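To fix ideas, we reproduce below one chain and its tokenised fold.
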Amino acid sequence: MTRSDVPGRQPYVAGVVAALVGFTSSFAVVLAGLRAVGASGPEAASGLLVLCVAQAVGMIVLSWRYRMPLTLAWSTPGAAMLAGAAATDGGWPAAVGAFAVTGLLIVATAAWPALGGIVARIPAPVAHAMLAGVLLPLCLEPVRGLAASPWMVAPIVVTWLVLLRLAPRWAVPAAFAVTMAVVALWLAQNGDSLDGPLLPHLVWTAPSLEWQAVVGIALPLYVVTMAAQNVPGVAVMASYGFTVPWRATMATTGVGTLLGASAGGHAINLAAITAALAAGPEAGPDPRRRWLAAHTAGWAYLVIALLSTALATVVAAAPRGVVEAAAGLALVGTLGASLHAAMSATVRREPAVITFVVAASGVTVAGIGAAFWALVAGVAAHLVLRFPRPGPATSPSRTPAR
């Protein structure tokens, strides 16, 4: 029996693993998303830091209050959506304002469950197709990176592929570890120094409200966070016998998003993938003690937060395409799941295909990004195609009344 197999230690080990896997598997995606909507290097590092702290505090409070393995995460699909978005009118302050609006919408979902019902009325294939469309550009980065810098990107891809076969959970963290080693070697060879903060440092931005940012960033970010994170997170918890306190969780994540917006945090939500690490058997044989896994994950994230700024500075110094390739590899599994869910309809797949194509196009119309227009196009196609075609007129029945 190994030390991690001792029943008393399992929840704590599972919590640390959940935090490490959750952070390393997607922090570069978060940084890419924040930079895409106008954040400077220090502002993006601040956003990563405040997201770590917000979800850590939320996990510690919720798991202690409800004695459940309630694991939180930042919205990785939301960050991927930001990475494919164009800078809006108003720049970074407008994006920060959109993050605050997203937090308000999540809080409103806690107070008014009918709002969540409205999101649930969006056809699931359309929502998944939108997510797949915004993920596609990032998932193409490993291909572009291999073509542009094969000697730097190939070790990352090979590491990911080998670990995907031998230890799937650690494939993405190992790929990011190799990425950091490649970047460090490149910096040493080129004599470059890191230009940015290494110690935790928050950069506050006064939010501004621009209608293009609210429509093009806040609404799609809210929809993708609810549909791709919160709803699946509830399902994952239910599969292990836990009933999520919906209102409390939405209120906590909404307030956390709202408070963290001015420091650059885009959104936090109920975890879906890492939730299984804290709620499943790996966190111990006794479900009543698994809340300790989420509690430990919260404290582990506070420790990770101390290192997040330095990691963000290293990523900012990396040559173009290297970190983006690692981020794309991290999203391959999510892209596959989204495409599968989008094409799950047995009839009328056209709305999902239309949604995917529009989202992947990256077009900006009236200052509003492709994610919003993809939802509009997909829902409109669904409404048009849901009704049967009118058939030939039929004569009134001549059957006598009885």
Q: What stands out?
A: The first strand starts at residue 72 and ends at 74. DSSP finds 18 helices and two strands in the chain. Confidence is low (pLDDT under 50) at residues 393-402. The CA atoms of residues 113 and 174 lie 40 Å apart.
